[in-house]
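Its record is set out here:
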Amino acid sequence: MKQIIHLDKQLEEKLILFEEKCEVICRKLEQNVQAEFEHHNHRIVIELVRLNKGKIVSDIDVFEDDYESFIELGLEQDEEYYPNGYIPLWKCKTEWFQKIGYMTNRSLDEIEKIILLIVNEILEDVEGD
């Protein structure tokens, strides 16, 4: 994660676009692998999560104190959810009376590859059960 101290409108737009592209990647990959998991009576969940002070938020206010976004991967089985992976994207917090952001160093392609690696590990575990 790289530290960013200049939080401006241009960065905000970049972050919102980045999060939206990550959501598209999550949906695409989830759809692509869902059938493999359903074959083993599981459901894979790949989603972008936005939190503010630990609570899920739907509006995107990336510069709000304690806002964070990340990609979470998990399995659903018998109406139970089991988280398996976490990829941090952005976090905003106040340090020494100044808002500071922390953004992933990874590109969209790198994030997609990491998701696929985690999905394959989860699938191997499911197939081994």
In short: The mean pLDDT is 93. The CA atoms of residues 69 and 87 lie 9 Å apart. The longest helix spans residues 9-38. The chain is about 40% helix and 35% strand.
